[in-house]
Amino acid sequence: MRVLSVVSEAVPLVKTGGLADVAGALPGALGPMGVEVTTLLPGYGAVTGALQGARAVWSGALMGHDARLLEGEGGGLDLLVLDAPALFAREGSIYLGPDGADWPDNPERFAALSQAAALVARGETEAPAPDLVHCHDWQAGLTPYYLRGSGIPTVMTVHNVAFHGLAPAERAEALGVDPADMHRDGVEFWGQLSALKAGLVHASHLTTVSPTYAAELCTPEFGMGLDGLFRARRGDLTGILNGIDTAVWDPAADAHAPGFKTPRGKGRARDALMAELGLPDAPGPLCVVVSRLTEQKGIDLLLQALPALVDQGGRLAVLGSGDRGLEDGLREAARHPHVHVTIGYDEALSHRLIAGGDAILVPSRFEPCGLTQLYGLRYGTLPVVGFTGGLRDTVIDASPMAADAGCATGLHVHPLTADALAQAFDRLCALYRDGDAWKGMQRNAMGTRVGWDRSARAYADLYARLIAAR
Length: 470
Ligand code: ADP
Prior knowledge:
Bound molecules: adenosine-5'-diphosphate
Largest sheet: 9 strands, mixed
Radius of gyration: 23 Å
């Protein structure tokens, strides 16, 4: 099977969030299952710079700009790179200009990516045509629309429904969208063009990154205005959990953190982290957060509930960046000697935090899958999570029954309020004081299957089914 994966970011080349982790790891997991994945990425500087053995397989114009498709290898991935310097060779973030706002031509940039995907899929380039096209999030959403009526199977994966990829209706035609399709049952969303909706309406099959999020997407509370469409396509919607790259996130051999296999080894990672951050020894757990700092992630609730943690001797170390107000709130909280905050993005520190922490906090209001709780499980860093999406599917709450059954791996916070989070801190501190209970949970957590094998098999089976039905 030959699959074209269309995506705007992929580890290790370019990353802003979990989407990149998934796009970077899934091809390697699918390879042994007989699925050859080529990843189509925009030609940002970091991508063209890493491309090796490049050969042009197409050249022409997309969205009025000179463009080429380069085939080659980079970052361990088989790549097709859309080399269109006017669209992608820019300083700064891949989605945001220097003013922190979306690049005004984002609709055109990613429409060009989707048009390139359609060219490859139809066999109109010198690259081999795929059997199926796998599109990720709104940036690839127009691909299934451009391929409508072609019979080429397409999968549209929703990594986060909060991002719709909206464009003013007047730009629809220039984006290659037939104005006749700008209606409620087509690609229009409240008067604008939605690239995500275009994908959701036209793809052969929809997936999202956890079974619970698949169900949540069908509700007004989580569907972000698209719940009716998800309900209408419920029979074509599958939740497949994300995995993590267990070679990169390996407690026994971590390139960025002191490696360990045993609880004592973990203790050394913890001591090193406390020394690095200047956090004092204290009787409570050392909690860590590695996150975008946004309302979605419940950081405001964490700030409100924090006294319940530090008053019991707990400590908190945060790494993240995002909303100014939340960054300021965290800086203020860091005046307490038990709290350390690093504002920024730091891959190596994220590993040291997850290796050295006792617990990882992910109090998200919604979370399609979430990756950091999976890293936490693997490192025996017990997750305290909102009861939503993939957090709900991957963490087993330490209820008395789960404790009896010997399968608890963390704590659920439900309902997700500051008070409930404070109560979760009480439970966490009590478990921590009961050393045996804690060690048992660490063992359960470290034994959880968090790699890609099971989910890669689910994708491979889905691809095979869709290709056979063509
Ligand atoms: P989302 O994609 O919503 O941001 P995920 O949990 O799915 O959330 O993925 C976030 C990814 O980004 C994880 O790999 C996490 O370790 C990483 N990450 C988030 N913030 C930082 C940061 N400040 N420094 C380093 N890595 C980060």
